[in-house]
Amino acid sequence: MQKILLSFLGTGEYQPIRYRLGNQTGRTTRLSAAAIGEFFPGHRPLLLTTKEAHAKNWSVVEESFGELELAQPERVEIPSGKSEEEIWKTVETLVSVVPEGASVILDVTHGFRTQPLLVFAVTGLLEAMGHARTERILYCAYEARDQAGVAPIFDLSPLLELGIWSRALADLRRYGYATPLRQLLREIAARAHREERGHKPLGLVGLADAIEAITRALSVLRPVQAFEAASTLRNRVSKAEADLKAMPELRPLAQFLRASLSKYLALGGTHELFSRQGLPSLGRMIRLYLELDQYPQAITLAREALVTLRTLDYKTNPLDPNARRAAESEINAAATVLRLKGRPGSADIIRYAELWNTLADLRNDVDHAGFRKNPRDALDIRKLADAICNQVADWLQEASRD
């Protein structure tokens, strides 16, 4: 793996100073890249410079790296950024200059105008695409020097982690995909326990496992398992929020965590899932499937929810195979009569039969991958599924109050 130190050269007047990283203090230098290079000698320095910065300060670069007995950096010329075209040219250069598989330390001390923002965004892109890994983001804080004339190097790497968090939470919210969030929570917990730091998180791993359990169960249509995992989630979120609030670099995330998990929190409860009180949870699962564009699951669960509701009408056990077969046979018979333009025997079964006919045909069309004469168009399936599944969810909510 190539190790890269990516830094900027500006047009400022650089003053000699010593920098401190953690418990280590380096030698006097005028350039942040040289200071960081002393702490990370195995990283090949790439210096991004405009023509103006090169003309004024490249001698400072050669002097600074030479004094610290470091390998001279490679110069990468970038435009001054005086137009949108030049800004995008800088982005293009950044994408091309970082080798595939590289581990990058990013020095944002001396960037000019939008340059640090651009390189920050580009390294985030490269990491998201699996092209390169951002090892650290460092800022040499000259203005924060102490009475001894030593300035700290701030590790801003958690800022990149905020981007990773946002993608992980977005994956969960939009697609019901929890693996990135689970990995992130576990990595943060493991790192905190490895390092010498004040707070050792106790709730992050539990939250990671709970949300993964919910989404895993939903992905293979296991509503009982999803309900049980969701019922533990509120307590897990509270513990994780306490951890995040105790970790300064992650504190801004605490207010977003519960909102991002709200739809999953709503799936649980203190009641039994297969009871009148549990029907709204089934309805919320159906709506969540629709929101996540998981239409086959929504259609299948809506159909099974009707059978469940009918067993509850008769006060039989919704999980008893015989009770489910009896309820399904009754609904199916009424639906057949309705298709033949007849009238089912009892008024209360008509609503079941009307929904059942649409759901059954829709499920068959989807489950058999459209291998039939005149299959529905994909957009028509989505529209019909939205309409019919929401009707079932509305009925489940209504029936819970009976």
Topology:
Elements: E1 3-9, E2 18-21, E3 24-25, H1 32-39, E4 44-49, H2 51-67, E5 74-77, H3 84-97, E6 103-107, H4 115-128, E7 133-140, E8 150-155, H5 157-175, H6 179-194, H7 204-219, H8 223-231, H9 233-246, H10 254-260, H11 262-265, H12 279-291, H13 295-313, H14 321-339, H15 348-367, H16 378-399
Parallel strand pairs: 1-4, 1-6, 2-8, 4-5, 6-7
Antiparallel strand pairs: 2-3, 7-8
Describe the overall structure.
This protein has helices at residues 32-39, 51-67, 84-97, 115-128, 157-175, 179-194, 204-219, 223-231, 233-246, 254-260, 262-265, 279-291, 295-313, 321-339, 348-367, 378-399, and strands at 3-9, 18-21, 24-25, 44-49, 74-77, 103-107, 133-140, 150-155. With 402 residues, the protein is α/β, with parallel strands linked by helices. Strands 3-2-8-7-6-1-4-5 form an eight-stranded mixed beta sheet, sandwiched between helices.
User: Strands of the largest sheet, in order across it?
Assistant: 3-2-8-7-6-1-4-5
Percent helix range: 55-70%
**Span of the ends, CA to CA:** 65 Å
- Bin the strand percentage: 5-15%
Series of H and E elements: EEEHEHEHEHEEHHHHHHHHHHHH
* Total beta strands: 8
> What is the approximate shape?
elongated
Specify the number of helices: 16
* Biggest sheet statistics: 8 strands, mixed
Describe, in short, the structure shown.
With 402 residues, the chain is of the alpha/beta class. The chain has helices at 32-39, 51-67, 84-97, 115-128, 157-175, 179-194, 204-219, 223-231, 233-246, 254-260, 262-265, 279-291, 295-313, 321-339, 348-367, 378-399, and strands at 3-9, 18-21, 24-25, 44-49, 74-77, 103-107, 133-140, 150-155.
